[in-house]
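W.,

You were right to be curious about this one. When I first looked at the sequence I had no strong expectations either way, so I just let the prediction run and decided to look at it fresh. Below is the sequence, 107 residues in total, followed by the output.
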Amino acid sequence: MTSVEELASVSCQIIANVGEARSLRLEAVQAAKAGDFDRAEELLAQAEQAFLKGHEAHTTLIQQEAAGDPVSMTLLLTHAEDQLMSAEAFGILAEEFIDVYRRLGNR
């Protein structure tokens, strides 16, 4: 069973990494808005790496529970999962916004 401290640590890993991903994705949208699509793509790639680190931390908890070792739902873990889903949704929207800016730039 995961200790409270271990669960808090994993939760913070998720929050920090997906928070970084969301920030990089926002920066990518801003770069695209300024017409710097190469920079936008670089930032999206960096964001994906950060997001994957957070997702992998989350996956360890899912695997633990699937193996029969329950994970306690804490407020911190709930917040981490909320941030994970928010960052994932924002990633989809960021790509769409960047595509729109790219299309508008070609007019």
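Here's what jumped out at me. The chain has three helices and no strands. And, maybe more interesting for your project: The helical segments are 4-33, 37-66, 75-105.

Coffee later to discuss?

I.
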